[in-house]
Design goal:
Bound molecules: 5'-O-[(S)-butoxy(hydroxy)phosphoryl]adenosine
Structural class: alpha/beta
CATH class of one domain: Alpha Beta
Number of strands: 30
Length: 656
């Protein structure tokens, strides 16, 4: 199990009151949910989710809330029909809230756009009509490769509206990564932009699409949003400007209802093999849990809150808590295109003060970056509008929790640490802000209606005080339904380890004496870098595809800011000409090209040998020790323990 720095609250006892952080009484008094929610959900789990589903508009009621007759293939709200986009947009306009702001959008260079629910409805209808004009039909996949601009949301909702399946690829992924996702999902239309703004400069997206389309067949049309105005290559007949296509469409579009189990989107995520998995989410159950958790975990008040998930729509956090959760709850959100330090390190706090943000949701890695920049940066801004803070993506270490609570939340805002995954679709383990007495560093309790256990190797529940593996023991509405095109892989990856009906999450966890859950990080070959999930095998296979590399092993080493940093060990081919700095630079560049900048190793070490078990498996645990400069662990299972000696003796011949 990968150890994590995060549960060690030593030295912080002075800052953590013995009684923890109980909900402030004023907060508890007005909270959307009280302690009774746990009892209600425990008494009738499925009935509890049915109640949550009734918060949405259905055009046809379901006959069966849950069909789990063929595990692990679940069906929720069987026979029910709804339109996800109508639930996110139209129904609020019809109820008289058309003038409410859906998004305060802030571009990195400082340009802004305000979009009301009525405007969003018109744009979604136009985009839906545009997709229909391009021949997109119900069930077809549409690739979306956009920066953080409103058209990303509009595109997703337009797909949902016509029953097309969106497949958003984070703008930081390479042409190769984009191409393989387009191929796997068999998408025929791509929506992109000329470029986007990151760190003060425009970066190209359309060139990446052009390159990707040289590596995959079947894309008929590329719809291009003009964002930066940079020059782009143009393929007549294939490429079409968003404004030309969407601008001329009618703002009327009659929405059809779809089955609760109609596919909504595919999101690729890294697993333990080199091939990313297409996680499939469907409509009714997904929207039910995303909407309810957004409302309950963040105590959302649609009339007064200004909500900001500071993430990218290219990840599941953006799908669930920038788009579907907030819109289904008629929330006003902030959406920000750029980086936190452009043009200055107080940019986020300036945005919060400007728009009166009340709820902020971000990742521990970002909080630790702000800690490095110093508390005097946020201190210069009025953050008094904030009333709740959320965290996601990795365990939040108590130091970061306390800093966030004090310096951003002014000591008055509950900090809600939410554990979940691309696969779970929505929050699964987190405190409830009006109920739970908070413990810095712990995700604490299963969300109401969610079955969670921490078990040992054999699958037996562990005792308080012990450490084990997090499993989910009951199907939940927003669970993934399968891996796109690969039911076997879905079964093997998640449901085979502990037998029928038990979902293996891939995370280690500890139960404290009160039975509260502390997440400890991944237990498989998956790294968590700045809250992004990256597969060690995926980076390894990118490295060995370089002509100079014979073999590669990649580990996630503890990193004070990013949680983990990618460290690669490579063995060069005999004919490799260079083993110095230039080569290392080239290898890093190669990984950027193959996967994307987020997968670029922090450190690359050229070595002569790699430690392996008798069965030939690379011993990543030992390499992690080397990468973190720890005492080497027990290496008795090495084929030849001299390998590690030799290895460490020769380490590193080259690194940076
Ligand atoms: C993995 C899922 C959920 C959206 C962002 C990441 C880690 C996530 C927490 C948390 C401890 C966390 C887990 C999980 N993780 N949130 N609050 N505490 N660990 O989604 O890319 O699917 O990654 O992120 O290891 O398995 P993802």
């Amino acid at each position: 199990m990968s150890e994590n720095q995060t549960t060690d609250a030593q030295g912080l006892s002075g800052e953590i009151p013995a009684e923890g952080f109980p909900p402030p009484p004023e907060f508890a008094a007005q909270a959307n949910v009280g302690a009774d929610v746990y009892e209600r959900a425990a008494a009738d789990r499925v009935g509890f989710w049915e109640e949550a589903a009734r918060r949405l508009d259905w055009t046809q009621e379901w006959d069966q809330a849950l069909d789990w007759s063929n595990p692990p293939f679940a069906k929720w709200f069987v026979g029910g029909k709804l339109n996800v986009a109508v639930n996110c947009v139209d129904r609020h306009v019809e109820a008289g809230h058309g003038d409410q702001v859906a998004y305060h959008w802030v571009g990195e260079p400082g340009d802004t756009r305000t979009i009301t629910y009525a405007q969003l409805k018109d744009q979604v209808c136009q985009a839906a009509n545009a997709l229909v004009e391009l021949g997109v039909q119900t069930g077809d996949r549409v690739a979306i490769y956009l920066p953080m601009i409103p058209e990303a949301v509009v595109s997703m909702l337009a797909c949902a509206r016509i029953g097309a399946v969106h497949m958003v690829v984070f703008g930081g992924f390479s042409p190769d990564a984009l191409a393989s996702r387009i191929t796997d999902a068999d998408a025929h239309v791509v929506i992109t932009a000329d470029g986007g703004y990151r760190r003060g400069a425009p970066s190209g997206l359309k060139p990446n699409v052009d390159e990707a389309l040289g590596k995959t067949d079947g894309v008929r049309n590329v719809v291009v949003v003009k964002r930066t105005g940079q020059d782009v290559d143009w393929t007549e007949g294939r490429d079409i400007w968003w404004d030309d296509l969407v601008g001329r469409q009618s703002t009327e579009h009659e929405a059809e209802s779809f089955d609760a189990e109609h596919p909504l989107y595919i999101m690729y995520t890294s697993g333990t093999t080199a091939k990313p998995k297409g996680v499939l989410h469907t409509s009714g159950g997904y929207l039910t849990q995303v909407s309810y958790t957004h409302w309950a975990s963040f105590d959302i008040k649609p009339d007064t809150d200004v909500f900001w998930t500071a993430a990218d729509v290219g990840w599941v956090t953006g799908h669930s808590y920038i788009v579907y959760g907030p819109l289904s709850n008629r929330t006003t959100s902030v959406m920000y295109e750029g980086t936190p330090d452009t043009p200055h390190q107080g940019r986020w706090w300036e945005i919060i003060a400007e728009y009166g943000v009340t709820v902020l949701y971000t990742a521990p890695t970002t909080i630790r970056t702000f800690m490095k920049w110093g508390e005097d940066v946020p201190a210069k801004f009025d953050l008094s509008s904030l009333r709740l803070l959320g965290s996601v993506g990795e365990p939040i270490n108590p130091e970061a929790w306390l800093w966030y609570h004090k310096n951003i939340g002014g000591g008055r805002c509950p900090v809600v640490d939410t554990w979940w995954q691309t696969e779970t679709g929505a929050h699964m383990v987190n405190p409830l802000p009006g109920v739970t007495t908070l413990k810095p560093g712990a995700a604490q309790s299963p969300f109401p209606g969610i079955g969670v256990k921490v078990v040992d190797e054999e699958g037996n529940p562990i005792e308080p005080g012990a450490t084990g593996y997090l499993v989910l023991t009951e199907p939940w509405p927003s669970m993934l339904r399968t891996i796109w095109g690969d039911d076997e892989r879905y079964k093997d990856t998640y449901w085979s380890r502990y037998g029928q009906g038990v979902y293996f999450a891939g995370d280690g966890a500890k139960l404290d004496e009160d039975g509260d859950i502390w997440l400890l990080g991944r237990v498989d070959d998956v790294m968590n870098v700045s809250g992004h999930r990256i597969s060690t095998t995926e980076v390894e296979s990118a490295l060995v595809s370089h002509p100079a590399v014979a073999e590669a092993a990649v580990v996630g080493a503890t990193d004070p800011t990013t949680g983990q940093g990618i460290v690669a060990f490579v063995i060069l081919r005999g004919n490799a000409e260079d083993s110095g700095e230039e080569l290392v630079k080239g290898l890093r560049q190669h990984v950027r090209k193959e996967i994307g900048p987020i997968a670029s190793p922090r450190q690359i070490m050229v070595v002569q040998e790699l430690p392996k078990t008798r069965s030939g498996k690379i011993m990543r645990r030992l390499l992690r020790d080397v990468a973190e400069n720890r005492e080497l662990g027990d290496d008795t299972t090495l084929t030849d323990s001299a390998v590690m000696d030799q290895n460490s003796a020769k380490l590193p011949t080259s690194q940076d």
